[in-house]
Structure formats: C-alpha cells, structure tokens
C-alpha cells in the first residue's frame, strides 16, 4: 500500500515523505474492529460545527475563533455517546477517548482539556 501511495504522490515529495514516516500511525484504526472505519462521525461533527458558526456569524479576531474551536473540539472529545444502536450500543456512556481505551483522570471535559494543553 505504501508503494502505491508513493507512486501516486511522486510529484509531492514532502507528502510522500510524510506518508513514509507515519504510515503506521495513519492506519492504527484499521487494527481494532471496534473503531469505526467510516467518516460518519466526522461528517456529523462538521455539520454541527457549521450550524454553530452560522449562529455566531463572526469572531473579533482569529485568536478568538481558534479558542472557540479548541473548546468545542475538546467538548466533543469528552462528550459521552448517548444514542448508539446495534453493535455500537456498547459506546453509550463513554466518550470517544474512552472508546479508544484512554483512561481519563476526570469525567469533567473542561478539566481534561487543561491536561491536553
């Protein structure tokens, strides 16, 4: 697979080198059957984010927008799933970090966000 990527991106040496160095980290989600292989969750996050940004309309500065997006991102990382169905129902009550076996120091997302900084 890496060989195919290298050929496809041969005219982009920086990108090819990035793939070569990080291919093991880029594909770790493929090793665990419990982790979703689709991008439905990210599409949902983008849709919610666009809805929120429309209501805010504009920010005073780039720093304000960046701070808001960091808070929102961390909120989503620690927000527990509530309405998963079928084989994903085991995720209910757990955050996306907990689903990936990360042990959290606290259930409070704001407190955990400070540890990430």
What does this structure look like?
With 117 residues, the chain is an all-alpha fold. It has one domain (32-116). Helices cover 57% and strands 0% of the residues. α4 (62-78) packs across α6. The chain is globular and about 45 Å long. The protein starts with a helix and ends with a helix. The relative contact order is 0.08. The mean pLDDT is 77.
What is the gist of this entry?
This protein is an all-alpha fold. It is 57% helix and 0% strand.
Descriptive terms for the model:
mainly alpha; 6 helices; 117 residues; 57% helix; single chain
Mean pLDDT: 77
- Helical proportion, percent range: 55-70%
In total, the number of domains comes to 1
Q: How many β strands by DSSP?
A: 0
Please count the helical segments: 6
Main sheet: strands, sense, barrel: none
Residue stretches low in confidence (pLDDT < 50, at least 5 long) are: none
Radius of gyration: 18 Å
Judged by helices, strands and strand pairing, the structural class is mainly alpha
| Straight-line distance between termini | 35 Å
Output the helix-strand order.
Answer: HHHHHH
The coarse silhouette is globular
**Quaternary form:** single chain
Percent range for β-strand residues = under 5%
